[in-house]
Structure formats: structure tokens, C-alpha cells
Amino acid sequence: MREKKLLGTGVSNFKDLIEYNYYYFDKTKYIEDICKNRGKTLLFTRPRRFGKTLNMSTLKYFFSLEKAEENKKLFKNLYISNSRYFSEQGLYPVIFISMKDIKESTWENCFKEIKLLIKGIYSDFEYVRDILNKSELKEFDKIWLDEENADYKNSLKNLCKYLYKYHSKKIVLLIDEYDTAIVNANIETYFDAEAKEFFRGFYSSALKDNEYLHIGVLTGILRVAREGIFSGLNNLRVYDIFQEEFSSFFGLEEIEVKDALKYYEIEHKIEDVKKWYDGYRFGNSDVYNPWSILNYLENKKLESYWLGTSDNALIYDILEKSNLDTFKDFEKLVEGKELEKILDSSFNFNDLKKYPEGIWQLMVYGGYLRAKRKISQFEYTIDIPNYEIKTFFEKDFIERFLKDTITFNKSILALLEGNIEKFEYELIQILKTATSYFDFGQEEKLYHILFLGMLISLKNNYKVKSNIEVGYGRTDILLIPFEKNKVGFIFEFKVAKTEDELEERAKEALRQINKKEYDTPLKEEGIKNIYKIGIAFCGKKLKIEYEKKE
After folding, report:
1. How confident is the model at residue 437, as a pLDDT?
2. Dihedrals phi, psi of 344, to nearest 5 degrees
3. Which of 38, 169, 458, 512 sits at a 20 to 30 Å CA gap from 67?
4. pTM summary value
């Protein structure tokens, strides 16, 4: 039996992937389209771990005149080798820069890392010093030798000029994860004050009116980060998740996944794989998560692989500023429902601060949600793309905002056992830890997050109804068991101004359940065992009053 190719999970260097004969999903067809865009700058935005760095590495080895004949062999038997655009192989000096590791807490440290990065790139092209005039050599050495007053804003454009002067060839400029440092600067709150001006100059000088540039290619996650950075860049073409061109350049189409499963003799698992890792929609292509597919092929286990690799800091930052309506929407998503949301790519960071609804854009661009169907120019239905992403809402999200998952599980178990006293105790323990994320003026939001967790953990055994009209009013939470012999639950919440009011407010909540007949839907479902639970809370304290109907 012929030995199968190894899987290069985590290998983002194209040369290594080919030379070590790892399994490779051939994306070189898109080099044709990139070649057709000469004289332009292309920006691709996709979620993390969707093949951006590998594709950029592929472009580097394709275009680079350095070791051109050696690199030519890498493309043997790949699509591009039979294209008329293969004549472009090995013709250009290539500058490749990755910003993916620039994640510093202060602008001082961020700029220090950027300077080191640029210095390293200049070192790679030390040979051009031989043909530079005195003035150019002085500017080169300021960066190369880390001297004071070096012109870092124009460093990439200047390097393009030096390389053109040496080779008499225009430059291919590749910038991977261009937005990482920008997003991080926003999270750490130094973007507007210090970083914005530098990045605007740094990127614009290299990409705008650069006479030495053959083509520029950038990748990132968020189109939102480009606002104010590329202002006036009239040759920029943006290919985000909504564009039909290059729609499957990043990610895997179903035929690619099926071929891989067949090669590794597990094609019978396609439906399970589809459930877990399919569901993304880029342009007109249905796309699988490539990182998850590679890990599944290697481990043969249906697990969450992608979420642990992602930086969720910006999403968490926006979530912590969100209102109650946002968390009610999360409830709907967890229930398998769709939302109708505005996804406007012109959003910038200031917009996100003003309008927490921008969380949906971040979720879609970041790969946590799918833009399923276009309603109007900017309005889309959005939903959870696959089972893997559900684990983010079921595990990571709850752990982030409730911290103590073990305690939360204890509270749910106590509830299902009918031990309401223990349920009350465990809820108090949760509040003690969870409230560190929220201001005390937002107790309602916190409490809703708490019951969002309940919704998630009970979804397989209960229909969870939130804030619906029942009987003669609107109840907060209904838990309706799928099995009629199981216990149903009714929750009504009240806020007390002081701890002394807790007991009375809890009793008031219980009376409201009875008076307004909130048990009507449970009775209609044939549920006979019902817990009616009134909860009053004040800060980190709460009180429960309850009745059981049998």
C-alpha cells in the first residue's frame, strides 16, 4: 500500500510544503488573476487561519527573481505551470513583510517592534548598498544600523526605489496581516493618539503613487481597519468576504474537501465534516475552514480546532460594551435562528465605539458568523455557520463572561434536581465572579448573560423561551422540557434597590407568575411538574422565592 502524504498542519511556507511533499490544496489558479491586476494594490480580508499567509508565501516564491530557477521547480504539476502567466515567474524583486506578531500594549513597544521588523527586511537586501549614492546610503544605513532619525514612514517606498535602481525591475510588495498591529493599537487605546498617523504614512507611501511598484498585495481580517489608513489610495481593490472574485482563494471548496477525504480513505465522513466545518459563504462560494479540515484529516476526530487559534480580543472588547439587546440576539443565534443586520464595510473604530451593533460586523468578518443571505445593499441575514462555531458560544463565550464554568454547571444540576436552595447558592457564587466584567449599573445585562448560559447548556433537553407573551403578561424565561414527564421552569426577575428589599421583590416576582398565569404554555404542552421561580437581585446578592406545582 502506497504511503500517504503527510499533512502540513501549521506549515505556512510554500517551499517547505512542496519540498517535504505535504498534501497541498492547489490555489495557484488565482495567480493568473493577480497577474492581471498589475499596477494595482489588492487587499484580501478573510478570517484567521484561512490560508492567507500560505498564499502570500506562494506569491513570494512565484514572483521572486531570487533563486528563480530553483523556485520554478516548486510549481511543477500545479495549475499555474500550464498558464500563459507562468512567464511572470521569477521576474521581480519581492518584499515580504508580516505584521502578524505586532501586538504590544504601548505605542513605544509597538514602534520598537516595527523598527526591528523593517531593519530585518533591510538586512535581507544589504546588497543594494553597492549602487546607492551617498544620500541614499545614509538613509539606508540609518534603518539598517538602527540609528536615530531614520525615516520609517517611507522605509518601504525607499526600499522599493533602491531595489528598482539595482535590478531595473519593478517591485512586488506583499504585506501579510496588515491590520494586526492596527487592531491591537485600538484595543490598547493608543491608535488615535499615536499609531494612526504612522500607519497612514507607512502604508500610503508604499502603496500610493509608488512608481517603483509592480503590484501590491495585502491580507488582513478586518476591512474596518483600513479606514483612514489608505485614504486617497485610488488604485486599491478590496476583495472581502462579499466579493465574488477570489471567493475561494482562501478556504476550501467542497470538491477539495471530498478529494482530501477520499485520498485519506475517510470519504464516508463527509456529512459529519460538513456539519462541523462547512457553512462559510465567501462571495459565490461555499467554503470550509481549512485549518479545521487539516486538523481533522490528521487526528480523525470531530473537535473544535480553529477557535483556540484565534485572537478574540477585539470582539470581547466590544461585547463588554454591548447592551442587553445584543445578548438577546445571541440567544436567538444559539437557538438556530437568523438575524437581520447591517453589514457596512465603511465602519471604522470610532463607529464601533459609538455603535456596539458593530459587533455583528466583527463576528462576520472574523469568521464567527455567516452572512447567509443579502436582503438589500447593506442588510444581510446572519447565523452561526457550523457546529464548530457553536462551541465558541457554548464554551469559550460562557467561560469568558462567567469565568467559573464548574460553578455554573453545578447551578444547572441543582436546578434540574429541584434543589432550589443550592441553585440559589451557586448563582450567588457565579455573580461574585462574573460581575468583575460589568459595571453595577448593568445588572440586567449581566443577569441576561447568566441565563444565556443556561439557554446554551439546556438546549438539547428544553425549549427555552425568553421574554415572550404568555398568559396575561410577558415572562422572562420559560424552560419547556421536550419530554412531558420532566420538570418545567418559569423564571421572573426583579431588581431591588437595596438588599433589604430582596425578599419582598422575589415574592412579588412569584406572585406575578401566578397572577398572570405564566404557566399557560407549559400546561398546553402537557407538563404537569412545574417550578415557579421568582428571583430578585441587587448587586452581587440575590433572593429566590419559589413554588412547585405537581
Report:
1. 47
2. -105, 115
3. 38
4. 0.84
